[in-house]
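Worked example 2:
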Amino acid sequence: MQAAKRAANRAVALLAAAALAVITVLVLDSAPAQAVRPPGIPSTSTAYGELAALTVAAESHGSSYDRDLFPHWSSVGGGCTARQYVLSRDGSDVETGSDCQPDSGSWQSDFDGVWTSTVSNATIDHVVALSEAWASGAWAWSTAEREDFANDIDSPQLWIATTSANSSKSDHDPAEWMPSNASVRCDYVKAWIHVKYLYDLSADAAEAGALESHLDAYC
């Protein structure tokens, strides 16, 4: 039942993201190169509604978490892994080899507003960390469901981040950490809420309170 609910949430979100993508292409076609944020970030009003729909519950099963329970970086088609796909999608002037690995380009880490042209410094962050997802309900998922979550290129789950920003964020939720770049905080919070909603993950009380405060403050 929960898997069906997650699938239904994601189907509706994908349709909305597809419509937005058409508009985005039309706008960006004549615009200069700029940083690109992940797809599917909802409107503020949608984010408030999705936040209200989240189950508020204490985290559990944290001690049994293992990163290997979330297989990544998996192939997402075209010979590309999810990591390679996001680097190409959200970078600027990216050139890839026959193996889909970027050879050159530039990438912005929205969390700290830093640009890098060193691909090894352009890490891919799970906005809702894998350990956070595990303790919020993913412990009950199948391995295939966890793999889908860890390699989701269609939702705002995967973000480019510098090594230092990724390390600073770690597995903290928005009650514990927020991006130093204030201009991204609204989208960051909306992305976090949307991912939790899509996957029917719970939020603990402190997290839910912080999400509402951040929406009020930054959106």
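Residues 14-32 have pLDDT under 50 and may be disordered. Helices lie at 2-28, 44-53, 82-90, 130-135, 143-150, 163-169, 185-198, 205-218.
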